[in-house]
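Student: Hello, beginner here. Can you help me understand the protein record under this note? Any guidance would be welcome.
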Amino acid sequence: MRFLSIGKSLRRALYLSVLLCAAPLARAATVTAVEFYNESLDHYFVSSLTPDIDALDSGRIRGWKRTGQTFQVFPTQEAGGGSVHPVCRFYIPPQRGDSHFLSASATECAAVLGLVATNPNYSGYVYEAPNAFYIALPDLTTGDCPASTVPVFRLWNNRADSNHRYTVDPGIKAQMLARGYIAEGYGPNAVAMCAPANGLADVQARLTSTSPFAPGCDGVPPTGTLYTNAEVEPYLAVNPRNPNNLVGVWQQDRWSDGAAAGLRTGFSFDGGRTWGLTAATFSRCTGGNAGNGGDYERATDPWVTFAPDGSAFQIALAISGESLTPGSANAILVSRSVDGGRAWSNPITLIRDGADAFNDKESITADPTDARYVYAVWDRLPAAGGGPSYFSRTTDGGASWETARPIFDPGAKGQTINNQIVVLPNGTLVNFFTHLEISEDNIVGSTLQLIRSTDKGATWSAPADIAEHQALGVSDPTTGVPIRDGSILGAIAVGRNGVLAAVWQDARFSSGARDGIAFSRSLDGGSTWSAPVRINREPAVQAFIPAVTIRDDGAIGVTYFDFRSDTTARATLLTDYWLTQSTDGVTWRESRVAGPFNYAIAPIARGLFLGDYMGLTSIGTTFVPFYTTTNDSNFVNRTDVFATLATSPGSAATAKIAEADQDASTSPMRAEAARPLPPTPELQKRLHDAVVRTLERRVPGWTPRGLKRNPDPGPR
């Protein structure tokens, strides 16, 4: 073993030995080791420690960017069991080369320690950590890895500015060998360590760090708390003409009293591994002004879609002033990109209102069967009450848009919210929404419904029910602090085979104790739906904010958050983000996407807020979750946006995990059905209160009797 060739990895500023030895925030079966690259140094660095990752992602240590490559490791001996070994980590200070070196071999670690003590050439070397993480060793003769693990290759650059690269990807190993690197390890394949098998296919990219916005860029005095550097509520789309081209959108710099300073956009041309950043001019902070149509103080509710010709469209709700007050304005804006998301047109206004009505919860869908058609839909809430679904479309690829009009009006005692259009393979439009109905005794009920159009939105059917919606909302189980989870919202997806899938939060599976994730599907274009089933693995904890997509091969993916890792510590709310997959809607297999992380430091927007929704799409047989998590203990940069290329069920890594069945979360579970809860007065009141809480967070002055202006400042 060439342990003497300890690599130069980081510049002087990363010498933070105390932080680097910090323990992970929470217990986890595995954690992610993230690789970074410095182009000017031509050096690689890998770490699973949160302080390292945050320091590099934030830009405090200049020149380092994620490569998109990761592998899984264990944070503790307990997490990995008796077969794993601690990985020692050495640091060489600047006068000796500014280097890092990792090894899971106790013999190798001891040899380096001996040289530090006896060899002048090693003077100043620092033994940073005896256990930076834990991992398995291969057979020292054959190099074979234990079952349920994959090889980690260590490659030395064979230069005076010594550097190592650690990878689980044989393709990367071959590339580095071709560049003159030397493989260091055991057996004929030179295997240095062995990582848990679920690390093979996952690629995670962090899109954001600090805010690009100048203080006061909205041009008005603040009315709430501005969470600078906080990104929330992301959404994602993939280009059907080039699946390696993705565009994601999110809120940048969230305000406590509603909306964000602006919306930001990320674009990728390598399947989500690396990203560029830009923005449409939906608000002043992203360059909006009276001349380009974006002269608004704030923006929110980002959504994005791709047309079949490769054009991308994003939509926003733009806001100025306190909603529904004299002088205020709110508008639905659309912008188009014809270059994969790099540049965006000036926004087109689909509708603009002032004190008389509030437009909310818009989405946009390009017709996959005809690039000329793109559809926008939202709910419009008149101050006098009610809330119809509004619709606009372009029939010329975005050059112009039709005048917005209602397509479903539930009447003065009802409203819709969360309108989303999907398009069936035969061209039929399906608009999915939540229908809120106010009873004679002033109790609000919630039903998931849809309407259909067979003529590209010219006319629409009467509403059809999907399911009764019985969500209670989510809160910190220890402190009771509310989570702003969008509990009255749901999500819908359509597959190439015409299958429709819907997901939402529902308490029916726990007899009304807590929300779980409900799933239903339709095999006949939405005419009939299967009985709702619970698909979150842990029924004893709250699960929330589901997203759904259907891969080209028909496999269904659903992501969601839950609290299974949480403890009773009041300062933390430990949360994981999960992907569960199914080919039949009955049997599901789950894997962790991210976490545990501390939800308790999320921005507060009348509840801890990471978004009403998250993004989820797919590239071939790979699901791509697009989501936000908090940065643990980092109150300056509370949240960031991530994209993960998640392991597919057919991959070798997942197959190995399933065969070994080492982690219960990787074994299949059967979905659990439950009837709607009996409509007792007590339950109806709890469901009513959950709806009111959710809408009061979104719209000022909302009451079960209709919208009325609230004299106190309300959320926007």
